[in-house]
């Protein structure tokens, strides 16, 4: 059994999708990040970086419990455990890895920062907003170009697609239209129809109310800590 600790952010959604795609048994544990639960000693024993997601596999690769944090590392761990989504040739393996790392190092951080400045930042951040918007648009165009002559980001459907797909939920919120990115839309819609993705989204929908409840309960001080507006 695998314990998944998280909430409903894109980095957690990708782990839901991977677990469903790989057919691995799991239990979900909601972490009240807006109330600072991730900074407590119990959670920091799982991840000293105080971030979700984290998994605890009670039947690890060597038969011993294993804790893994960082969503890219979790995806690779789960793929190795299940023996799927790991290309058999060296070239295909590194093609997958580079597009997975592109999501981890670029798509997630840049789109996530744009989300922050669009939805939460105070006035007076025109430079930051412009910087992250331009970078997000560059990445949307890059992904669309990549998908112009292929169905998926790296060979067959796999980890790079699973990692990237949840972040595309913000495209319209970022002021973009799917009509601007026809290849990206085709890819996105095809993945949305996968049964495992449908199951993952159903599971996520059941816990969205928990995120909403913690947002309603959060104080200005806990939100400042969550957004790191007051320092450590």
Task: Report on this structure.
The chain has 232 residues and is α+β, with helices and mostly antiparallel strands. It has two domains: 2-84 and 196-226, Glutaredoxin (3-Layer(aba) Sandwich), CATH 3.40.30.10; 90-193, Up-down Bundle (Glutathione S-transferase Yfyf (Class Pi), Chain A, domain 2). Helices cover 55% and strands 8% of the residues. It contains nine helices and four strands; from the N terminus they run βαβαββααααααα. Strands 2-1-3-4 form a four-stranded mixed sheet, with helices on one face. α4 (90-119) packs antiparallel against α5 (126-146) and α5 (126-146) crosses α7 (182-192).
CATH architecture of the largest domain: 3-Layer(aba) Sandwich
How much of the sequence lies in strands comes to: 5-15%
Assembly context of the chains: single chain
Strand order of the biggest β-sheet: 2-1-3-4
Number of strand segments: 4
Mean pLDDT: 93
User: SSE string, helix = H, strand = E?
Assistant: EHEHEEHHHHHHH
CATH topology of the largest domain: Glutaredoxin
Largest sheet: 4 strands, mixed
**Spans of at least 5 consecutive residues with low confidence:** none
Q: What Rg, in angstroms, do the CA atoms define? A: 18 Å
What is the total domain count? 2
The CATH homologous superfamily name of the largest domain equals Glutaredoxin
**How many angstroms separate the termini?**
34 Å
